[in-house]
Every structure is written in structure tokens, then in C-alpha cells.
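Researcher: I'd like a candidate sequence for this fold, 399 residues long. If you have to choose between options at a position, lean toward the conservative one.
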């Protein structure tokens, strides 16, 4: 007698990937004034046969960064969906639009952002893009203006983007479109456009823009001068307790952004960034995930082999450490990244170290992941990248 076949139960993520396009469109909405602002908050919803709703929302920066953020909810009652929309409208007015317009807004922002070097949000690439119809001739083409009024990228600092995030975005614009071919508006300029001096004091953004005018030799000289007191590395591990220390921190981080960009072999650096980006789509960090003692023991054993040069780059991969697990704990994440950090520092691998720093910053929000191990991870990487950069520059200068 043949075994009874049970229907496959898909996770919400896999359902969206595999079946969402089969559901009829329910509502498409966008914030009022999106064309003038160049920032579109779109929500696309589809109705299940049981009357419930699955929706995906997308934050699309048409002026520069493309698909900045996305979130979704699966198979919820229509009344709950209407409550979600009511909460959204507390922040901005929503207007209903045809699906074709929503589709074109998202694709236009996605393509514009990627053209100038900004990848779409990882959840968009792995999940919520599949809420959209196939991008084919069946979708009417609607022209969506991107960039500033002359088509040049205009980066407007978001309220959650700190100095480090701003510096990375500006460095990417310098690299991909060139100095003078983009514009930047800081949060302080948004708050008080009449006082142009205010934003100069924000966290070192002024230093990043100032140092963009320096020669490579001038940046090296100033970096070595500021970092010569290695006890100052404590500033990365503890809050600054003086104005001078805070200022030194801002200057060092701004100079490091420039110098890493100047000296790293781009192909090697981009390869590592792409690797971490791809891996981040395979797993999520969840405090309630089942922790594997075997994996933690394996990581500790590998850490002990770093000093003997017995690790390969392949050993650092997520798959090598966790196999096909889709969830890991914050502690496991911290240990995995600590292993990678130790390897790159010992091998004096600057491209790997810098790519790891950027990956960790992109991976989590400090407010969201309060685990102590993760909370200490980024400051340690910051200290390592300054120290290793100093060692590299001194060796290049024959010191």
C-alpha cells in the first residue's frame, strides 16, 4: 500500500518566493508626494483564497540608494492588514495606485541604485522581490525619474544613518560616479537649512569631506600622527569621555575610510563583500534558535589553529561552520565573526578585514540585537581595522 502523501507546508518566506505571484493583487499603495520627495514607501498586497492578506512593503530611494528597506507579513486577516495601514498613515498619507506604477517605481529605483553601486536590501533580493510580477512586456513601461533634477545621484542622509554609514555611502559615490558628480544633504541641513555650519560638527562627516581634498600622502601622514598613541584604541571599546578623544575618533575613522578605499585591491575587496552579502541571505540571527555545542567547539578549535596558519579561506565560510542551518544564535554569530576577524588579522589581510567590518555593520542593528557578545563585536573590529591599517602603512614607509 502506497504511503499517504502529505501536502508540503511552506514557510512564509518560501511561500512568497514560490507562490505569491499566483495570488490576485488586493491593494497597492504609496506615500503621497513620493515624486517630489524621491522617496517612495510602497505596499503591495495579495489576497489568499481564504480571504487573508499577504503584503510586502518597500522603501525605495529614487534619488540614490535604490531599495533601502523592505518587510512583509503573511496570511493575516484583512482587518489586521487595515490596522497595519492605519499605523502607516500615522507617519505619512497613503494613496492607492495601479500595480503597474508600483512595479515601475520599485524596478526603477532598484536599477538606478545598482547602476551606481548600491545593492538592494538583502530581504528584497531573497524574498520580497518575488511578490512582484515578472518584469516582462506584460507590465506597461512607465517612466520614473531617478536622481536629482539633472539625473545626478542625490544622497539625503536618513535619520538612522550614522557617520560611518554616511562615509561608506559617500565613498561608494566617489568610487562609482566621481567627485562632483553627486550631491549630499545631511540631516542637519534638513533640520536647519539656514545654519549651514551646524552639520559640520556631526560625528566626523565634515572630516570625511575635508579629507577627500587631501593627497594620499597627506592622509597617511595625518593618520599615522593621530594613531601613534596606541592606547587611544580604547576609544573604540568605551564611550569617549572627552571632547578631544571624541574628535580623534571621528578623524581616525574618516581617514581610515579614505585610506582603505585608496589601498585595497578592488577586485579582492569586492569578492569578499559579495561573499558576505550572498551568505547573509542563507541565515537569520535568532535568540531562540537551537545552539549547537558541536559548532561552537569546532569554532574554538579553528581559532587555536589560526596562529599555525592551518586555516584556509574556505574554512571561514558559513556553510563550513553551520552547514545548511537557516537560524543561528547571536552568540554563534559573534563567534563566527570573531574567528574570521582573528584569521584576517593574523594573515594581515586588509581587504578581508575591511569587508568583514562593513558586513557586520550591515548585518545587524545594535538596538535590535542586544546580546552582549554582538554588542562588543563591532568596536573590536573597529579597533582592529585601525591597528592593522597603521601596521600596514608603517611597513610601506619602511618603519
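Model: Candidate sequence:
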Amino acid at each position: 500500500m502506497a504511503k499517504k502523501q502529505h501536502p508540503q507546508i511552506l514557510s512564509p518566506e518560501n511561500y512568497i518566493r514560490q507562490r505569491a505571484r499566483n495570488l490576485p493583487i488586493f491593494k497597492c499603495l504609496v506615500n503621497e508626494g513620493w515624486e517630489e520627495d524621491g522617496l517612495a514607501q510602497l505596499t503591495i498586497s495579495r489576497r489568499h483564497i481564504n480571504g487573508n492578506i499577504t503584503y510586502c512593503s518597500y522603501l525605495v530611494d529614487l534619488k540614490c540608494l535604490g531599495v533601502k528597506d523592505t518587510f512583509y507579513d503573511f496570511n493575516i486577516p484583512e482587518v489586521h492588514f487595515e490596522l497595519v495601514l492605519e499605523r502607516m498613515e500615522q507617519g505619512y498619507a497613503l494613496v492607492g495606485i495601479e500595480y503597474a506604477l508600483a512595479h515601475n517605481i520599485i524596478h526603477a529605483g532598484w536599477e538606478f541604485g545598482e547602476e551606481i553601486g548600491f545593492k538592494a536590501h538583502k530581504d528584497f533580493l531573497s524574498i520580497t522581490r518575488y511578490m512582484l510580477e515578472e518584469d516582462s512586456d506584460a507590465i506597461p513601461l512607465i517612466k520614473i525619474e531617478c536622481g536629482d533634477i539633472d539625473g545626478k545621484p542625490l544622497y539625503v542622509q536618513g535619520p538612522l544613518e550614522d557617520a560611518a554609514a554616511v562615509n561608506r555611502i559617500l565613498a561608494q559615490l566617489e568610487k562609482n560616479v566621481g567627485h562632483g558628480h553627486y550631491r549630499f544633504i545631511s540631516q542637519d541641513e534638513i533640520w536647519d537649512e539656514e545654519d549651514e555650519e551646524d552639520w559640520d560638527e556631526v560625528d566626523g562627516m565634515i572630516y570625511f569631506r575635508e579629507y577627500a581634498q587631501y593627497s594620499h600622502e597627506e592622509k597617511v601622514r595625518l593618520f599615522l600622527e593621530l594613531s601613534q598613541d596606541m592606547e587611544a584604541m580604547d576609544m573604540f571599546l568605551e564611550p569617549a569621555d572627552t571632547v578631544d578623544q571624541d574628535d580623534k575618533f571621528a578623524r581616525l575613522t574618516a581617514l581610515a575610510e579614505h585610506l582603505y578605499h585608496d589601498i585595497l585591491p578592488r577586485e579582492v575587496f569586492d569578492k569578499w563583500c559579495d561573499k558576505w552579502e550572498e551568505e547573509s541571505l542563507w541565515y537569520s540571527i535568532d535568540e531562540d534558535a537551537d545552539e549547537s555545542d558541536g559548532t561552537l567547539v569546532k569554532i574554538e578549535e579553528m581559532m587555536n589553529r589560526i596562529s599555525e596558519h592551518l586555516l584556509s579561506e574556505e574554512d571561514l565560510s558559513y556553510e563550513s561552520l553551520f552547514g545548511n542551518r537557516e537560524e543561528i544564535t547571536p552568540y554563534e554569530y559573534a563567534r563566527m565573526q570573531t574567528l574570521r576577524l582573528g584569521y584576517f588579522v593574523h594573515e594581515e589581510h586588509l581587504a578581508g578585514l575591511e569587508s568583514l567590518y562593513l558586513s557586520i555593520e550591515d548585518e545587524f542593528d545594535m538596538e535590535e540585537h542586544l546580546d552582549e557578545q554582538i554588542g562588543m563585536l563591532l568596536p573590536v573590529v573597529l579597533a582592529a581595522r585601525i591597528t592593522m591599517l597603521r601596521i600596514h602603512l608603517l611597513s610601506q614607509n619602511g618603519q
